[in-house]
Amino acid sequence: MSSMRRLTFAVSLAAALAPATRALAQWPPETLTNLQVLDPATPPAEVIAAMRSFTSALGVRCQYCHVYSGDDPDDLTAFEFASDERPAKTKARAMLRMVRTINEELLPEADGELGLRVECETCHRGREHPETLVHLLERELEQNGLEPTIAHYRELRAELYGSGAFDFTAGSLDRVARHALHAGQADRALALTDLNLEFHPDEEFTNLLRAETLLALDRRAEAQLQYQRVLELAPDNAFAAQRLTELTTDPPEDP
Question: For the segment 240-252, what is each residue's pLDDT rounded down to a tens digit?
């Protein structure tokens, strides 16, 4: 990094941290009260570091969990941190206890050699609710219908692709479309598979799922072409080859 770039970065970083620095000059007090999950003897600086990791993992600010009565969210003196009024604070404590149990009791038994640890970011990845893309889309399909769900998927992909917040690989939409097909909603499954193929045109399973969906809709000629497409992508796909044989073999004549 050149000296000019280093200087620019340093100035930008200082500007970004300035509000928090001003607030921390007035807060915290020497001791904190009403710590129920964290050790009451934890130094305030360590509590602040933990709180910052929580807000970063969930993409929220302090007022998400804490009572706030000021005009400047960077002024920490305007918060009633000891108050338990906000339900989100109670939920956060439950989540912390869950994480502690996983890390101290369950993970060592399951995979102690790797020394893995669960953190807020493990599930939340910058989102308030740790919901998978599959769960979100299926919930929206049920509540809002097909078109709004497809529109929301496009918005989420445009905004969050590459961030790690959601799994935008072909598998997510495949699962939603497959569930719809098994539920007898072939038209919905076809729309979701077509959406998936916009972004993953050469995905073997997605093309196979589209062929199966066309077959369920009794669109046999289109299904035949789709199975051929699968075999172009994966010549050893025995299932697609069998389906294609069934579709291209003339049915026996009635006696």
Answer: 999 999 998 866 4
Q: Rounded CA gap, 40 and 47, in Å?
A: 10
Of all helices (H) and strands (E), which one includes residue 68? strand 67-68
Residue with tokens 């909603």: 185
In percent, how much of the chain has pLDDT > 90? 45
Nearby residues of 238 by Cβ (< 8 Å), 6 or more positions away:
none
**Total-model pTM:** 0.75
3-state helix, strand, coil in the chain (%, to 5): 65, 0, 35
CA distances from 222 to 77, 180, 210 (A): 66, 20, 10
pLDDT at 71 over 90: no
DSSP state of 168: -
Residue with tokens 């893995």: 116
The helix (run of H) or strand (run of E) holding residue 43 is none
**Distance, CA of 94 to CA of 87 (rounded, Å):** 11
Burial class (CB in 10 A: 0-12, 13-18, 19+), 49: exposed
- 167: which 2 tokens? 């799994």
Go through 83-122 and write b for each residue having 16 or more CB atoms within 10 A of its CB, e for each that does not. eeebeebeebeebbeebeebeeeebeeeeeeeeeeeebee
